[in-house]
C-alpha cells in the first residue's frame, strides 16, 4: 500500500470515527477558511483604528500648520482604508445567496444567519477531577462517558444544514442540562474554557461558564432554522409553509435566548441584537404568509384585493419595526449595512404593494360599485378614516368618478413606495449585486407606474386626494414558537452516577462507606427503608445489629454486597437483602447538606415508590409476636409494613420496608 493511499485511508477512518449523525467534519474546511479571513480583516481594522487614533491625537496636540496638513492627509487615508475593510467584511457576512433554494431567483430574497464557530474543547481532565473529588469515584470507570461527551461536542461544531443537523444541536443542548447539573456547582466554575466566535464579526470570546456554551448552541439552533427556512422552495405552497414554520421557530429560539441568557460576551447574543433578529425572522415569516396568500387567493373582487393589501401592509409594518431596531445605537454599527437596507427596502416595497392592490380593487374589479363591499373595505382599512369629512378627500366613493380619484391616489402612493424601495436598494453596494431582487423591484415599479400613467393620460386632475396609511391585518399573524427541545430524547451520559435529583453538583454527601451487619439465626437486622432509586434508611432500632453499626437514619443505600443499587427499585433492594442471609454488606452515603426524610424535602418527588401491589406473609406463618398489641409489632414480610389480618387496598402506596425480623 502506498504512503498516499495509507494517508487517505487514515483520514477516512478518522472522519468516520468522529462523524455522528447530523454532522459532517468536511464542512469545517470551508468554514475555517471563512473564519480565518474574518479574523484577518478584523485584525487589519483594529490596526487601522489604532493608527487613526494616534494621528488624531497628534493633530490635536501639534501647533505646526504644515504638520497638521500632513496628518490630515494621513487621516483621510486611514478612514478610506477602514471603510474598504469594513465593506469587505460586510460582504463576507451579508451574502444572501448562501442557503437559498435554486428557485430563489423567482422570489424576493431572505436573510439567513451563519452559525457561530467554536474550537475543540477538552473537558475530560476537569470532569475527572470533579468525579474524584465530589463523587468519590474512580474516573477511569467513566472513560466511555467522557469519550461520548467529546464526540458529541466535536459533532456540533460541523452540523449538516438539514433537520438531522438541527436534531444534533438540540440533542447536545439537552445533554448540557445534565452536564451542568452533574459537574457545575453554582459557587464555582470548572477550568473548562469554552471558546466561540461571533457569528458576524468573527471576534473570539472565551468563558468558563457553561451558560455561555448553552447560549451559543441555542444561537446556532436559531441560525440553522433560518438556513432551513431559506432553503425551502417558495414557488410552491408546501415550500412557503416550511419557510413559515422555520422562521417562527428561529424567532422563538432568539427570544428564548434573550430571556434566559444574560451578560453574553459576544455582540451577536446581546439583548438588542437578539430582539432585532427575532423581529427580522417574524417579518420574513409574515412575508412568506403574504406570498402564500397571493398564491392561494383568486384575485377577483374588491374584498379579495383589500385582504391582500392588508397582508402586504402588515409585512411593511413588521419590516419598519425591524428597521427601527436595526438602526439603534448598538446594533447599527454591528450588523451589515445590507441588512439595514434590505429591511428598509422591503418596508417601502410592501407598502407600495398594499396601495397597488387597493387601487386595483377600486379601479379594475367588477364589484367595485357595491356600496356594502366598499363599506366593508373602509372599516378598519384606512387608519383614522372614520370621522373625516369631505375636505380631507377620504369620503366613501359612491360613484365611478370618486373611485377613480381614490384609486389614482393609491396608485400614486404605490409608485412613490416602489421608487423609494429602488432608491434605498441602489444605495447599497451589496444589494445591487443581487440582480434578481433589483429586477423584482423594477418590475413592480413599472407595473404601478404604467397603470398610473394611463390614468394620467385619460384624466386631467390637478389635485389628488390624500390617502391614509393602510392598516395591516392578516388571517395568520405569525408569532414566535419556542423550539420543542423535548422532541429530541436524550439519555444522561453520566447516568451511572445515580439519579440526578440526588447526585448532582449542588448536593454534598459523605464518601461511600461499607457497613457489615451480622445477625444470629431468627434475629432481624433492625432497620427499615423507604422509596427507591436510591433506597433511603427510614428507621433504625436502637438495640439491634443496625443500631450498633455506623448506619444512620437518612443514609442512602448505594450498594448491597457487590451490586450497585443507586438506580435499584424498592423491591430489588429487598431481594438483595434477603439473599444476603445472616451477613449483609451494605454501602451507604450520608447527605451532608439536607435531610431527605424531612417533609419539606418532598421525598416522593425525588424517590419514587413502587407502583405494583405488594403482598403480606400468609396467615399460617404468623406468630404471637404478630398480634396488634404486641410491643414488637413489625412483620417479617419482606414487602410491606402492616398489621396482621389488616385489609389493604391495592391502590394504597406501600409503606416502609422493615428488615428487623427478616430471618430467611
TrEMBL record:
Composition-biased stretches (Basic and acidic residues): 642-651
Transmembrane segments: none
GO BP term (any one): signal transduction
The PDZ domain, residue ranges: 514-592
Keyword Lyase among UniProt keywords: no
Positions of the UniProt region annotated as Disordered: 604-664
Biased composition range(s): Acidic residues: 652-664
Coiled-coil blocks: 75-102
InterPro entries per UniProt: BRO1_dom (IPR004328), BRO1_sf (IPR038499), HR1_rho-bd (IPR011072), HR1_rpt_sf (IPR036274), PDZ (IPR001478), PDZ_sf (IPR036034), RHPN1_2 (IPR047138)
Family membership noted in the UniProt record: Belongs to the RHPN family.
Protein name from the UniProt record: Rhophilin-2
Amino acid at each position: 500500500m502506498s504512503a498516499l493511499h495509507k494517508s487517505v485511508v487514515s483520514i477516512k477512518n478518522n472522519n468516520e470515527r468522529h462523524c455522528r449523525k447530523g454532522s459532517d467534519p468536511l464542512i469545517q474546511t470551508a468554514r475555517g477558511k471563512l473564519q480565518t479571513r474574518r479574523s484577518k480583516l478584523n485584525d487589519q481594522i483594529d490596526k487601522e483604528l489604532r493608527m487613526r487614533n494616534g494621528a488624531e491625537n497628534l493633530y490635536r496636540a501639534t501647533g505646526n500648520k504644515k504638520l497638521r496638513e500632513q496628518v490630515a492627509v494621513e487621516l483621510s487615508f486611514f478612514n478610506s482604508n477602514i471603510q474598504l475593510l469594513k465593506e469587505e467584511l460586510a460582504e463576507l457576512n451579508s451574502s444572501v445567496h448562501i442557503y437559498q433554494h435554486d428557485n430563489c431567483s423567482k422570489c424576493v430574497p431572505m436573510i439567513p444567519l451563519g452559525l457561530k464557530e467554536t474550537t475543540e474543547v477538552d473537558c475530560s481532565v476537569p470532569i475527572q477531577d470533579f468525579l474524584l473529588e465530589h463523587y468519590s469515584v474512580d474516573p477511569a470507570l467513566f472513560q466511555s462517558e467522557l469519550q461520548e461527551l467529546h464526540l458529541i461536542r466535536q459533532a456540533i461544531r460541523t452540523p449538516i444544514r438539514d433537520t438531522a443537523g438541527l436534531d444534533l444541536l438540540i440533542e447536545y443542548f439537552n445533554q448540557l442540562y445534565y452536564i451542568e447539573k452533574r459537574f457545575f456547582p453554582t459557587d464555582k466554575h470548572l477550568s473548562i474554557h469554552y471558546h466561540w466566535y461571533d457569528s458576524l464579526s468573527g471576534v473570539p470570546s472565551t468563558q468558563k461558564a457553561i451558560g455561555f456554551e448553552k447560549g451559543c448552541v441555542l444561537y446556532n439552533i436559531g441560525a440553522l432554522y433560518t438556513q432551513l427556512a431559506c432553503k425551502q422552495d417558495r414557488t410552491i405552497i408546501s415550500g412557503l409553509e416550511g419557510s413559515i414554520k422555520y422562521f417562527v421557530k428561529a424567532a422563538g429560539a432568539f427570544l428564548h435566548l434573550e430571556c434566559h441568557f444574560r451578560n453574553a460576551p459576544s455582540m451577536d447574543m446581546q439583548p438588542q441584537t437578539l430582539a432585532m433578529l427575532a423581529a427580522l425572522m417574524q417579518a420574513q415569516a409574515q412575508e412568506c404568509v403574504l406570498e402564500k396568500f397571493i398564491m392561494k387567493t383568486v384575485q377577483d373582487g374588491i374584498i379579495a384585493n383589500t385582504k391582500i393589501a392588508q397582508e402586504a401592509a402588515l409585512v411593511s409594518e413588521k419590516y419598519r419595526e425591524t428597521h427601527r431596531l436595526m438602526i439603534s445605537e448598538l446594533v447599527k454599527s454591528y450588523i451589515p449595512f445590507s441588512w439595514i437596507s434590505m429591511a428598509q427596502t422591503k418596508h417601502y416595497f410592501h407598502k407600495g404593494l398594499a396601495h397597488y392592490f387597493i387601487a386595483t380593487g377600486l379601479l379594475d374589479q367588477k364589484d367595485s360599485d357595491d356600496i356594502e363591499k366598499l363599506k366593508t373595505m373602509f372599516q378598519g382599512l384606512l387608519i383614522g378614516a372614520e370621522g373625516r369629512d369631505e375636505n380631507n378627500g377620504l369620503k366613501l366613493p359612491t360613484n365611478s368618478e370618486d373611485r377613480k380619484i381614490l384609486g389614482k391616489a393609491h396608485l400614486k402612493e404605490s409608485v412613490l413606495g416602489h421608487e423609494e424601495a429602488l432608491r434605498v436598494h441602489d444605495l447599497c453596494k451589496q444589494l445591487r449585486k443581487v440582480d434578481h431582487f433589483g429586477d423584482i423591484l423594477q418590475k413592480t415599479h413599472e407595473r404601478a407606474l404604467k397603470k398610473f400613467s394611463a390614468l394620467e393620460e385619460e384624466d386631467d386632475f390637478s389635485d389628488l386626494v390624500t390617502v391614509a396609511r393602510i392598516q395591516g391585518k392578516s388571517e395568520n399573524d405569525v408569532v414566535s414558537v419556542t423550539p420543542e427541545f423535548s422532541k429530541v430524547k436524550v439519555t444522561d451520559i453520566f447516568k451511572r452516577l445515580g439519579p440526578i435529583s440526588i447526585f448532582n453538583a449542588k448536593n454534598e454527601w459523605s464518601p461511600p462507606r461499607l457497613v457489615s451487619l451480622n445477625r444470629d439465626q431468627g434475629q432481624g437486622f433492625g432497620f427499615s427503608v423507604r422509596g427507591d432509586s436510591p433506597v433511603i434508611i427510614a428507621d433504625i432500632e436502637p438495640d439491634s445489629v443496625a443500631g450498633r453499626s455506623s448506619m444512620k437514619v437518612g443514609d442512602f443505600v448505594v450498594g448491597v454486597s457487590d451490586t450497585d443499587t443507586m438506580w435499584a427499585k424498592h423491591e430489588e433492594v429487598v431481594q438483595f437483602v434477603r439473599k444476603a442471609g445472616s451477613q449483609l454488606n451494605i454501602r451507604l452515603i450520608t447527605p451532608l447538606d439536607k435531610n431527605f426524610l424531612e417533609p419539606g424535602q418532598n421525598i416522593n418527588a425525588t424517590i419514587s415508590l413502587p407502583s405494583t401491589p405488594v403482598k403480606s406473609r400468609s396467615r399460617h406463618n404468623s406468630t404471637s409476636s404478630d398480634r396488634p398489641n404486641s410491643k414488637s409489632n413489625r412483620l417479617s414480610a419482606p414487602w410491606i409494613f402492616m398489621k396482621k389480618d389488616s385489609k389493604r387496598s391495592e391502590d394504597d402506596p406501600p409503606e416502609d420496608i422493615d428488615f428487623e425480623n427478616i430471618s430467611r
